[in-house]
Amino acid sequence: MERLYSDRKYIIIVFFLVIGLLYIARLFYVQILVDKYILSANNNVLRYMTQYPARGLVFDRKGKLLVYNEAAYDLMVIPRQVKSPDTAALCELIGIDRQEFTDRLKRARNYSPYRPSIFEAQITRENYGFLEEKLFRFPGFFVQSRTLRKYTYPVAAHTLGYIGEASPEVVAKSSYYRPGDYIGISGIEKSYEEILRGKKGMKIRVVDVFNRDKGSFQEGKYDTTSIAGTDLYASLDADLQAYGEMLMVNKKGSIVAIEPQTGEILCIVSSPSYNPNLLVGNIRKKNYGMLLADSVLVPLFNRAEMASYPPGSTFKLVDALVGQQEGVITSDTRYACGGGFSLGNGKVVACHPHPSPLDLVGAIQVSCNTYFCRVFRAIIDKKSALSVRQSFEGWRKYMLSFGFGRKLGIDLPGELNGNIPTAAYYDKYHGRDRWKSMTIISLGIGQGEIGITPIQLANMAAIISNRGWFYTPHIVRAIGKRDSLNQAFVQKRACGVDPKYFDVVIEGMANVVTGGTARAVQIDSVTMCGKTGTAQNPHGKNHSIFIAFAPRENTKIAISVVVENAGFGAAWAAPIASLMIEKYLKGKVTRKDLEEWMIRGDIIHGITLPDAGRTEHILQD
Fold this sequence. Notes:
CATH class of the largest domain: Alpha Beta
Structural class: alpha+beta
CATH superfamily of the largest domain: DD-peptidase/beta-lactamase superfamily
Number of strands: 20
Number of domains: 2
C-alpha cells in the first residue's frame, strides 16, 4: 500500500512539473519571441495609421492625363483616447457646431471605441498645416493622409465617374473596406475599382501623453507599404470628347463615336453634363445634391447608355439587310410610293415627295417610308414561315444579333437594354395570334415599341462599316501599360447577315450624304456614309438622329448623334456628326459657319441663329 501511494506521488510531481514547464515555455514565447503581445499591451501609446494607396491614373488614347491624385487629409478619432476635449475650440477649427461634434463622436464609438475612424474627411492641404499645430490639445485625434481624385479637363464626367465613401452595406460584405474608405461610385472608377484601388499599408507610430508623434514603433519593423493602383489607358480622345461636349451645350442628347476595327469608344458625350471636379472632396455631397435636384436638365443621367429612343429611319438599314438575308428583296427590288403606305380604313404611313419607283439604294438615299413598310411586311409575311409569330421571332433574333434589345456588355456601369418587343408582348396587348404584320408595321420604320440606346446606334454604324461584325464597345483600351491591350474585348461578334448584303446598304448611305437627306453636311475629301432619322416623341417635338461612318473604306470612326426635341435628323444631328468626323479625321474643322450654328444653337431654350451658312434645303426623313 505504501508503495502504491509512493508511485502516485511521483506521478503527481511529474504532472505538475510538466504543467510548470509548459507555462514557462509559453511565457518565454510570449514575452521574448513574439512581439505582437507587446503591441497589444502598448495599444494605449501606439497609433495604427492606414497607408492609403494612390489610385491608378487614367490617360486618354494619346497619353494625355485625364485623372490624377492630389494630397488630402482626414481627421481621425479614437474614442477611447478622447479625454475632456475642448469641444468649442475643435468645432471652430473644423467648422462644425457642438451637436455635430457629439453626433460624430457617437458614431465613432458605435463603430469601435478602440479603432480609429474618420471624424472630418478630406481636409485641404492649406487647412491641414493649421490644424496639425493645434492637435496636441486634443488627445485621441490625429491626421491621416490620403489622396483625392482631380480631373485635368472638365469633360467626360459620366464616363470617368467619381469616388465616394463606401456604404455600410459594402463595408459589411468586404474584407478590404473600412468605414471612411473610398470606393468607385460610377463610371470607370466603379467598373475598374479593384484595378484602380491598389493595396493598403499600415504604419505604427508611438505617441506621448500629449498626443505628439514620437516616431515609428520599433523602427518600422511592423509597418507595411501601400501599393499604388494600376494605371488605365482609356480609348477616349480627350480633344474629340471636349469638342463634342462643346457642340452639345444647351442641348439634350448624346454623341457616341467608336473605332469600328477595335470597338474602342472614341468619345461618349451625354448632355447636359457637369464638371467632374464638382464631385471631389468635401464639396461633393453639396454639389451632388444640387445636381440630383435638377429635374429639368438631369445632368447626372447618362443618356449615351441609359436613354432609349425610337431609332426612326436609321432603323431602315437593318431591315434592308435582314430583307436581303431572308430572300424577300434584292438590291434591284423596286416599290412605288404614292405619298405613303396605306394601312386600310383610311390610315396611311405618310412619306415625303421623292422620285418613284425606287430600288433599294434609292429608297435608302431618300428614306422612303413606303418602301421599308413593304420590306418589313415581306419579312413577317414570308411564305415559307409557318406563322406570323415564327417569322417575327426570326426577325427579332436578327435584331438581338445586332446588339439591340439587350446590353452590349460595355465596361461602364448602368448600361440598359433598350427594347425590341417580344411576341408575348403583342399577345398580351392584342391577344394570342390576333396580330399581323400590319398590326406592327411601324417597326419597319423604327417607330412603335422599339427603343435603342445611343451606344447601340453607334455600334450599328460600326457593324455596317465592318460588313457584319463588331467588337464589344469599350472605354478602357489598355491596363497598366499603354501597349497592354484590354483582353476582355478581343472576341469578334457576328450579326447573322452575310457580308455580301452590306455593300448595297453602304452605297445607299453614301448617297444619303452626296445627294439625299444629309447632302448639306458633306465633308471635303472625305467619303462619309450616313443615315438620318427623326424619332417620334409623344411628349413634344421629335428627336433628331443621325448615324454615320467614315471613310467608306478602312473606316476610322462610326458615330451616332441624338439631339432631343430638335426635329429632323438632318437639322441638328447630322451637322454635329459631320463636324465630329471632320475634327477626328482632319484634326481641325474648316466649316466655321456650320460650327458656329451648332455651338450657339440653344435647343433647350428654343434659341437658334438665322441660317447664314447652310444654304441647301433640308429634306424630311
